[in-house]
Design brief:
Elements lengths: L11 H6 L4 H10 L12 H12 L2 H5 L1 H8 L3 H25 L6 H8 L2 H35 L7 H4 L10 H14 L3 H28 L13 H12 L5 H6 L8 H30 L11 H10 L2 H35 L18 H17 L2 H29 L14 H15 L3 H25 L4
């Protein structure tokens, strides 16, 4: 008996425009891959700590030194600009997280509103955003490890503390940090969430301590002239710092592991972005007030140097550097978590290999996915310089955020009666302005970053054509 002929693939333009219904997104999440869904174990406190953990510390501890030379004393204004743009997008994320409570974050939101083609673009941007940001933050950790060793009169050789292009061969501290974070994620989301919570509390205390120390040496004249590079420099710095605000996106990837995602995700997203922006601005003001902006360098751990200069106590450098490494580890842990959940959702939709979607019955986590991502990110962290990583992350983040703002507008018009636990205020002004802010910040990223982004998207298009289009579950 002959088998029925296979159904021909639909035209590409039709396949790219196909939307995945929200009820199907939720049904697929409940069913999981091979009948094994994720385990719901996270409350609003855990979700908020994931959001804060993925964000707080990155822009201050790692990228501040690269942003000050661009903006001068006005770097705190750059944090305000990046924070406002992030807050506008966070409001849109909050609405979408309450309406589409799945692990896919902006990828799932665009799949439900703009179709498979845009969803693939968004998901591919998220892969860039998450994986590269983990590597970027881990790269910065080696500077603080070196500062810790200096207290004992030791120093990391450049060959094992910097990647090729920055005077070294391999960044071993960065690679080690990613491997440790990978190991912490394997037992389960709840277990790793408690580890993250402890680390978040440590880094909040660390930054509050820095602010207290910095203001004891505050010099108002360090803020004159306020913006030596002009508005262009302030905006360019904001573009670079924007990747420091991706934490709430990481929280939205926990939609399938939250106990009550419709209620808790919007609260965690909005609350965390307010806390993070306030602390960033305070630390930036304290740093500039304590040290002339011309003395900042992209190749040093700026905050620990300021603390040592003000207190003149070597043991303070030891405590602060250890705390900074813990703070950076929290970012690596939570962003790596977000990356694995994005790939899990894309695998469930058939757009990436199924191995990324398999969930262990014992731990309720995607073990193979976590190991693969951890190993790849470890290699990137060990071999790629920080500056290139930060800019690449920013552009992926900005594209994803802009698409979420647009998704809110589309979903309000196509499904006005859909249950929403939170609604964006001043609709449609907030999502429109949020989109424009993302576009403005993206424009100020360098030409090299745009070229790298174009190459990345071209690679994504090839991958979709060769694999995603043929394996999409909507086919």
């Amino acid at each position: 008996m002959s088998s029925a002929p296979s159904r021909p693939a639909p035209p590409l333009r039709h396949q790219l425009a196909r939307r995945k219904p929200i009820d199907q997104l939720q049904a697929d999440a409940a069913a999981g891959v091979d009948g094994q869904p994720l385990r719901r174990s996270l409350g609003v406190w855990h979700l908020t700590m994931i959001s804060v953990g993925a964000t707080l510390g990155t822009g201050i501890l790692v990228v501040l030194g690269t942003a000050v030379p661009l903006a001068g004393p006005a770097v705190w204004i750059s944090f305000v600009l990046a924070g406002v743009a992030a807050l506008l997008s966070a409001l849109s994320y909050a609405e979408m997280a309450g309406a589409v409570p799945t692990s896919g974050s902006s990828y799932s939101y665009t799949y439900a509103t703009m179709g498979e083609g845009i969803a693939w673009v968004c998901g591919w941007c998220l892969v860039l955003e998450y994986a590269v940001s983990v590597a970027a933050v881990a790269v910065g950790a080696s500077e603080y490890v070196d500062e810790t060793l200096r207290v004992f009169g030791l120093h990391l050789p450049a060959a094992v503390s910097a990647p090729p292009g920055d005077g070294g061969l391999v960044n071993l501290p960065a690679a080690a940090l990613v491997l440790v974070a990978t190991a912490v994620l394997l037992p389960g989301a709840r277990e790793s969430a408690w580890v993250n919570t402890l680390m978040v509390l440590v880094k909040i205390a660390l930054l509050v301590f820095f602010v207290a120390v910095g203001f004891t040496a505050f010099q108002a004249q360090n803020f004159a002239p306020l913006a030596p590079m002009g508005a262009a420099g302030v905006t360019a710095a904001a573009s670079r710092l924007f990747f420091s605000y991706i934490g709430f996106d990481a929280a939205s990837t926990a939609g399938e592991e939250a106990k009550d995602p419709r209620r808790d995700l919007p609260r965690a997203i909005i609350g965390s972005i307010v806390i993070i922006t306030a602390l960033y601005i305070l630390v930036a003001v304290a740093a500039i007030g304590a040290r002339p902006w011309e003395s900042f360098s992209s190749s040093e751990a700026s905050l620990v140097r300021i603390v040592v200069e003000v207190t003149r106590q070597p043991w303070v450098a030891l405590v602060f550097s250890i705390g900074a490494v813990i703070a950076i580890a929290s970012v690596v842990l939570t962003v790596l978590y977000g990356q694995t959940r994005i790939l899990l959702t894309m695998a469930r939709d058939g757009l990436v290999p199924k191995v990324f979607g398999r969930v262990s019955p014992r731990t309720g986590t995607p073990v193979a996915n976590t190991l693969i991502v951890g190993i790849v990110v470890t290699v990137v962290a060990a071999l790629v310089p920080l500056g290139e990583l930060a800019d690449a992350t920013s552009i992926g983040t900005l594209v994803a955020f802009a698409l979420v703002n647009v998704s809110v507008i589309i979903l309000r018009r196509t499904q006005p009666g859909l249950e929403r636990s939170y609604r964006v205020p001043l609709f449609p002004v907030v999502p429109v302005v949020g989109t424009l802010c993302c576009v403005l910040l993206a424009v100020f990223l360098g030409a090299g970053t745009w070229i790298a982004f174009g190459v990345w998207m071209l690679a994504g298009a090839v991958l979709y054509a060769l694999y995603g289009r043929r394996h999409s579950t909507l086919s």
